[in-house]
Amino acid sequence: MNGRDAPSEDKGRHPEGAVIGAERDGGADREAVRAFLATLAETLDVDETLRRLSMTADQARSILASLIAVQGHGAAGPEPGDRPGRSVPAASTAVEATINVDGASRGNPGKAGLGVIIREEPGGRVVRKISRYLGETTNNVAEYSALIAALEAARELGLRRIRVLADSELMVRQIKGLYKVRNEGLRPLHARAAALIKSFDRFEIRHVPRGRNSEADAMANAAIDARK
User: Does the model's pTM come out above 0.90?
Assistant: First the structure.
């Protein structure tokens, strides 16, 4: 599995009616559950799954709650033949996580992508992976986009204490306030990241060598490769 996003034209692969009105008889509609799990297994990206299915976060929570409620009693889900061998990330109850982020741009500016890996703590279990194509942009914009995607996903997961690992020394120092943000194109992204950071009880960001961030880097590049 490489966690690549599918092209945006795939939106609508599942009828919108399979999601709208997804709650029925106190639980999630079976077709909505199947559509949600099948799309999540394909994208490995909850944000992309919600976008494709025109689903709200509350509807997704209803589906997950329904699955948990019937665990061990024949939970509704994909039937045999629905993407065999593809695993669906389990819901997490963790409040702390370590997150690797990376952005890549070929040409700077050029085709760009981002990669994010969220691991709950303690234990290090991966609870979210994001691989997303960004179009034509610079490496610094891609790095900030990866950080913002990570912060948004962490907030959606209910995480309260996070540690971010990134190999962009510039971004890390700017987020820490050690460097000024002089580039006009980065200022809105810096402001967005700063606003999201305030929603956590504890936030830490560290610069790491590229070799310690290889998986996130691979996911960022995989998103670019998928658009060739």
Answer: no
